[in-house]
Structure formats: C-alpha cells, structure tokens
Design a protein that fits this description.
β6 and β7 form a beta hairpin. This protein has helices spanning about 25-40, 45-55, 110-130, and strands at about 5-10, 15-20, 75-80, 90, 130-140, 145-155, 160-170. The chain has a single domain, classed as Beta-Lactamase. The chain has about 190 residues and is an alpha+beta fold. It is built from 3 helices and 7 strands, in the order ββααββαβββ.
Amino acid sequence: MTLPAFTIKQFGEKRWQKRVQFSVDKLLAVELINERFGRSKSGIQKAYEYWRDKKQRGQVSLDEYEWGPGDDVATTLIDVSPDSPLHYRFTSTRFKYFGWMMDKRLSDFPHREIVSACSTEYLACKTLGEPVAHHLSHDLNGFRRDYLRLLLPLTDRSGRVAALACVSRHLDSPVPDESHPSTPDD
C-alpha cells in the first residue's frame, strides 16, 4: 500500500513550510530526468536501488544496510524503535548536515513545525514498512531548506521496522538560522 500524494502548507509570521508527499516512482522519475542532464545517477536513485537489491521477503535488514552519503545526498539513520515518534533518535555517523543532532531525539530539534511533521511522516513509513518520498521546503525565521527526501524502512531481526534510512538531496544550499548550523559539518 502506498500513501496517497498530498501537500501540507503552513504559514505564520516569518515562518512557512510546504511538505509534498508523492510516490517513490514519481521521485525516481524526477531523478531520472536529472540523470539525463547530468549523465549519472543521483544518490537518491543509487540509495533506492541499493535498498531494493537488499530486499528479501519484502524487507531490508538494518544489519545489512551500509549505504552512506554520496556526493549529492545526505544519509541519516533514524532509530524508530520507540513507541513515540518524539523519541525517535538520529543514530547515524554518516551525517552530511545536522551533525549536532547525533544521538538526539526528534523532539530535541529546535523547530516545532518540523518535529510535528516529521513525527507523522516517520511513523507512517514505519507503519507501512515501505519507502516514502517527499519534497520539503521551508523558511522558519531564516532557517531555509528546499530538498527531496526518501525514507527507506529497515527491520530488526524479528522483522519489525526499527530504523529508517533518510536520504535527502538539497535543491538549494541550506541556510542556517542564528542558533543552529545547517551547513555541512567539517
């Protein structure tokens, strides 16, 4: 079962975000267009193909997933084993952006609008047990991003989704707000 395509828009004083969920097939079609112009596969395409090729009995084991960041994507690993999405943790050491969130819970992220939306999106991917694609853009008091994101479910030894590989490709360079850097970690 694939989640239907939908768009969420939120606006406030000096704050807005737009989150579009669509099929993974559509995301891969967009990436294919870029491949034709760039003559090479994108990191999102490679990550999906890697995940697809590892899939056995409809699942990919967390123990077998070793995809890291590419030149054009950032990959993070999110522990989704807690019951509450607010307690999901960023556990990967393969951060390209937001290294300061390493080993922190989703609820520790400083922008509530993002926490609320991500908790719903991560829980949906965990529950469905299949990849989910998004186009996300926002400006939250100067914290600006515009990117494509692919969530890939990973299972524990019992077959339950225990982690998500989050592969994102920024369409524009992230712009930090004054308190939290969003540029690549050194």
